[in-house]
Amino acid sequence: DWTSESFVETTVAELKQQLGTDHVIMALSGGVDSTVAAVLLHHAIGERLHCFFVDHGLLRKGEYEQVLDSYKNMGLNIKGVNAKELFFSRLAGISEPEQKRKIIGSSFIDVFDEASKEIQKELPEGAEAKWLGQGTIYPDIIESISVKGPSATIKSHHNVGGLPDYMKLKVVEPLKTLFKDEVRRVGKTLEIDSTILGRHPFPGPGLAIRVLGDITEEKVRILQEADDIYIRNLKESGWYDKVWQAGTIFLPVQSVGVMGDERTYEHVVALRAVGSLDGMTADWIHLPYDLLAKISNEIINHVKGINRVVYDISSKPPATIEWE
Ligand code: XMP
């Protein structure tokens, strides 16, 4: 029978065997998967694991600081990399979802390349980082296989598929046989903080795929404010832990409203909350009307530029969790 304790024991032993005295480089996302994978690697190779966390400017409000903070005391050798400008400039004017993912994927690779060169320079004489650590889990593999099918292009998960050949890094993916709930159990066994383990999944391309249409810093900022109100209310009302994933989507339409005796013509955001086991299917959550009313009022009253909030009542299939 599968237990998280025996998984940790065997995996750490296997990683020690596989990696020997090699160094591993890893980009963390602040999410459950990459964190659990990193801690397993840390148990196996200690100081020879080198992590960094990229700020692409498309994270949630305050997330970059919070994530770096939460890694601080976990012994993970982590560096923050600010790459906002690079991502925003490359994404400017791009609306097509797959193109956004491709740009983000290749920009991640460029940032990664740069950061790993820095890391290589700091290694002891003669040492070389030969491995790339990744938090890939089983459903990621399934979804990207379906993406590559000839007829059904769903979404190209930017984080699956590895790096270009020239980087010559071998990939180590300690969680690739696990489902999300198993990853959380492993994380608990590793005594990872519950605020990290309880985090909702968040897509690698971040808010880029929640700003429908072209991306500007201003739209991202408005979305971050609205999303912050939404997520805070979910936490305060106890709904955050009952929901598998929630997020706010910035729609590419404007709508007419009134404010005092002025006509407004402003932005619309959609709120999404789903229940799921592994993200492959999902049901929309029946949040209480009172809670939705409170969130809607707060967003409309506090976030300048938004005059309408809608709630997404679609399940997957056919509607995917993300809108892009
Ligand atoms: P969908 O929208 O396909 O999402 O129903 C299923 C799960 O995958 C996440 N997702 C992504 N994660 N890169 C990621 O790392 C991506 O490009 C991507 N697209 C979707 C989504 O947030 C949900 O948890």
UniProtKB/TrEMBL annotation:
<feature type="domain" description="GMPS ATP-PPase">
    <location>
        <begin position="2"/>
        <end position="199"/>
    </location>
</feature>
<keyword id="KW-0658">Purine biosynthesis</keyword>
<comment type="subunit">
    <text>Homodimer.</text>
</comment>
<dbReference type="GO" id="GO:0005524">
    <property type="term" value="F:ATP binding"/>
</dbReference>
<keyword id="KW-0315">Glutamine amidotransferase</keyword>
<comment type="pathway">
    <text>Purine metabolism; GMP biosynthesis; GMP from XMP (L-Gln route): step 1/1.</text>
</comment>
<comment type="function">
    <text>Catalyzes the synthesis of GMP from XMP.</text>
</comment>
<dbReference type="GO" id="GO:0005829">
    <property type="term" value="C:cytosol"/>
</dbReference>
<keyword id="KW-0436">Ligase</keyword>
<feature type="binding site">
    <location>
        <begin position="29"/>
        <end position="35"/>
    </location>
    <ligand>
        <name>ATP</name>
    </ligand>
</feature>
<keyword id="KW-0067">ATP-binding</keyword>
<dbReference type="GO" id="GO:0003921">
    <property type="term" value="F:GMP synthase activity"/>
</dbReference>
<protein>
    <recommendedName>
        <fullName>GMP synthase [glutamine-hydrolyzing]</fullName>
        <ecNumber>6.3.5.2</ecNumber>
    </recommendedName>
</protein>
<keyword id="KW-0547">Nucleotide-binding</keyword>
<keyword id="KW-0332">GMP biosynthesis</keyword>
